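Module 6 notes. Inverse folding takes a fixed backbone as the condition and produces residue identities as the prediction. Think of it as a translation problem where the source language is geometry and the target language is the twenty amino acids. Below is one complete input and output pair. Work through it position by position during the lab.
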């Protein structure tokens, strides 16, 4: 069992920044993939970013490239999502996910490849 707890969401004006955290606990190990997904009201869940625990390599959705940065602290079993230049369209519930698989290439963007999810944290960007 892996438990994921997100934090850091909130209300911010357009152009502002937030940093989300996702702490993993329980039956964890280092060689896996962690990702961030988001879901806005009336829309399907979409991929945001992913990071692999073996080498720290990352994947990003085109919509957030250059604005968001995913990182991890191996010692703390925590993954972060630094969000800069936020836009109203970034408003969503952001969820952290993990899997024991090392997801390469396009596989990291599919929520079907993750088997543990956090409760989500609300990010609201006002215009």
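Target side of the pair, the amino acids:
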């Amino acid at each position: 069992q892996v438990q994921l707890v997100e934090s850091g969401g909130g209300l911010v004006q357009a152009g502002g920044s937030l940093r989300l955290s996702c702490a993993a606990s329980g039956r964890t190990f280092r060689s896996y993939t962690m990702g961030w997904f988001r879901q806005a009201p009336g829309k399907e869940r979409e991929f945001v970013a992913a990071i692999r625990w073996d080498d720290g390599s990352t994947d990003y959705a085109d919509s957030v490239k250059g604005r968001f940065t995913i990182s991890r602290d191996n010692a703390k079993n925590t993954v972060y999502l630094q969000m800069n230049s936020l836009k109203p369209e970034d408003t969503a519930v952001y969820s952290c996910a993990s899997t024991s698989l090392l997801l390469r290439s396009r596989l990291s963007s599919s929520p079907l490849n993750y088997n543990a999810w956090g409760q989500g944290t609300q990010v609201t960007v006002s215009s």
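Reference fact for the lab report: The first strand starts at residue 2 and ends at 7.
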